[in-house]
Design brief:
This protein has 442 residues and is mainly α. It has 18 helices and six strands. It has helices at residues 2-16, 19-46, 83-88, 122-143, 148-154, 172-206, 209-214, 219-256, 259-272, 275-285, 295-301, 305-332, 341-356, 358-363, 368-375, 380-387, 394-422, 432-439, and strands spanning 50-56, 73-77, 97-101, 113-116, 162-163, 169-170. The longest helix is centred in the middle third of the chain and has 38 residues, at 219-256. The protein starts with a helix and ends with a helix.
């Protein structure tokens, strides 16, 4: 045990002292923040009014134009009724585009044309299309004798407040966020730090340093010391990322941005999100009404946070240790990194499969597929994290934990049997049959 600790200490100190570790640790939160905010800031700073000429031969569109919240579009009636003359006006940089509306069949309005002196951005083109579509809809409503006021009265905006059986406010979006954050962190941690274990094993094997190390420690001790050391480096890096992200979010961002800019960035980020993310973001940013609990408070109130953190840490640690041992075994069987792919791909398939099915698991957290994925040791670290916020029976959680521990012990034993032979094997192309023989070598 003392030798494992010595190897762990060596791996940890060697890696945290590297410049790459320091740069990644301190720059990653800054780069991620810039990745999300910088494009929005640049977009907001470069936004300007876009004057659009409207040549409307129907004389029905102009009076019904409503750009809504998009204040950058300014529709201006064309001073001429001739299309050629209107197009010539685009040479004046004052006008961004020209919309030509010919006589239309209101049942099937086709033939509208859009001209510009240079290429039009996709977002702007969609905005112009939406404005024209709504204007035509208003005219068709008038032809049908339907008033906008009557239509507004017919529309029903149903609000549903979800509660648990005990009467506490609930939110499926909040549960989804909790589960996915835990699953994604475990997913990337296994890939990032598992690959570091692989590279470390291959480097020591190719440089023949391992021959010196093996003369004083057992192969299993070397493997476990390396896995635990890299894992501790990962935990250190994650803790520092959390602290730095908190500091940047709460101190650095307000210092360099005013409240107006932060509000605009938040609004633009929500607008650019996909429908599911947009819905979650809108709920997270909406203000409480009538003393109702905000979305964020609801997320925290509906889940036992200490229990969630405990479950996350357990699956994080044992999931990493199990996969890292397999990565180490695979790396010991090859002489260079290019040969590792034949073994790495089968190892990572369960991880990739589970994360790709995350939406299906959250959609039916009590379903048969979600249950078995959360029981199988190679998929349970991710599947159980997605399921847990939605409520998992105690016996299922206990069974999953038991199977993961058993799977961990089995995988470490299996990896150790392969590692002890492979770490001293050079110049031989290894296949799966050969690995099977190594397991039973005495």
């Amino acid at each position: 045990m003392n030798k494992i600790f010595i190897i762990l200490q060596r791996e940890y100190i060697t890696r945290v002292r590297k410049r790459t570790f320091l740069l990644l640790t301190f720059l990653t939160p800054i780069l991620l923040g810039a990745l999300f905010t910088l494009p929005v800031i640049l977009a907001l700073s470069t936004e300007s009014e876009k004057f659009v000429l409207l040549l409307d031969e129907t004389n029905k569109i102009q009076d019904r134009i409503d750009v809504g919240k998009n204040k950058t579009l300014k529709f201006t009636p064309s001073p001429t009724k001739k299309l050629a003359e209107a197009r010539a006006l685009l040479e004046d940089k004052k006008y961004y585009a020209l919309v030509y509306v010919p006589q239309l069949n209101w049942e099937k309005p086709e033939g509208i044309q859009l001209f510009s002196a240079k290429g039009i951005g996709m977002e702007t083109e969609m905005d112009i299309k939406n404005v024209l579509s709504k204007a035509i809809e208003r005219h068709k409503m008038e032809l049908a004798g339907i008033k906008q006021e009557d239509l507004n009265k017919i529309k029903a905006n149903v609000t549903i407040n979800s509660y648990t059986a005990t009467g506490e406010k609930s939110s499926s979006a909040g549960l989804f966020v909790f589960g996915m954050v835990g699953a994604v962190v475990i997913y990337f941690a296994i890939f990032i730090y598992g690959s570091q274990v692989m590279r470390g094993v291959v480097e020591e094997k190719t440089s023949r340093v391992v021959e010196v190390i093996i003369s004083t420690v057992k192969p299993f001790q070397l493997m476990m010391g390396k896995i635990l050391g890299v894992g501790l480096v990962g935990i250190t890096q994650f803790v520092l990322w959390i602290l730095l992200t908190f500091a940047i979010t709460n101190f650095a961002v307000p210092l360099f941005m005013g409240k107006d800019m932060q509000a605009q960035i938040q609004k633009r980020t929500i607008q650019d999100a996909n429908p599911q993310t947009k819905e979650i973001a809108e709920k997270m940013t909406e203000k409480p009404k009538n003393n109702a609990t905000s979305f964020f408070d609801t997320m925290l109130n509906q889940i036992n946070l200490p229990a969630f953190i405990g479950v996350f840490l357990f699956y994080f640690v044992f999931g990493y240790l199990m996969y890292a041992s397999l990565f180490a075994a695979a790396a010991s069987a090859v002489d260079n990194e290019s040969e590792m792919q034949q073994f790495v791909v089968p190892i990572t398939v369960p991880l990739i499969l589970t994360i790709s099915m995350s939406s299906l698991i959250s959609r039916d957290a009590d379903g048969v597929m979600a249950f078995w994925l959360s029981m199988f040791p190679l998929t349970s670290p991710i599947a159980m994290m997605i399921r847990y916020p939605f409520g998992v029976p105690a016996w299922q959680l206990g069974l999953s934990i038991f199977l993961l521990v058993v799977g961990f012990v089995a995988m470490v034993w299996l990896a150790g049997r392969i590692y002890r032979v492979g770490i001293m094997m050079y110049g031989k192309k290894v296949n799966y049959r050969e690995l099977g023989k190594w397991i039973f070598y005495k």
